[in-house]
Amino acid sequence: MDNRILVNDKYFVPYITHDKIMTRVDELAAEVRTEFDGKRPLFLGILNGVFMFAADFIKAVNIDCEISFVKLTSYAGMETTGAITSRIGLEIDIKDRHVILMDDIVDSGITLHHLYHELLKENPASLNILTLLMKPDALQKPLDVTYVGFDIPNKFVIGYGLDYDQSGRYRKDIYQLDEQA
Ligand code: 5GP
Known about the structure:
Layout: E1 5-7, E2 10-16, H1 18-36, E3 42-47, H2 51-61, E4 66-71, E5 75-76, E6 79-80, E7 88-89, E8 98-106, H3 110-120, E9 126-134, E10 147-151, E11 157-158, E12 174-177
Parallel strand pairs: 3-4, 3-8, 8-9, 9-10
Antiparallel strand pairs: 1-2, 2-12, 4-7, 5-6, 11-12
Helix pairs in contact: 1-2
Bound molecules: guanosine-5'-monophosphate.
């Protein structure tokens, strides 16, 4: 059976089902709850890709917290450009706050490495990184990622908030680029 999907000009194959994502979200949320319940953490999501994960995660973690988002872009099409082109948001004073950076996927790590070190200068009480997906083989910068949903190979993925040239974000499962196509 051909269960591939066509997104713009590329085929993708089913990779992680929504059920598996939700099971993992619950496990991660339980870990974070144990660590941060009573500390009123600030979850800082990195837009746009994180919006779906952030919504599910925040509901699952279910503790008193603050939620905000920043926007930074270093990606165009399927190649990381490495350039941080913008940072919109984050007017919150993070001094002495427990900050948890939430990302959809860590690829080269360039984007997060940069933001992580900028935020450290503002003296948060703690600074942790939470990502749904991580491509360990693609990492180009040292990055201490505390909470990882799934380690995945260095292949392009879409769905559950992740896009291919702005398409495919709405899908609730995650799909991987079909390299046979
Ligand atoms: P990094 O700075 O770690 O290379 O890039 C991270 C950002 O690039 C992610 O937040 C995401 O927006 C985008 N990205 C990296 N890998 C992928 C991928 O496989 N699929 C999609 N759709 N976006 C990706």
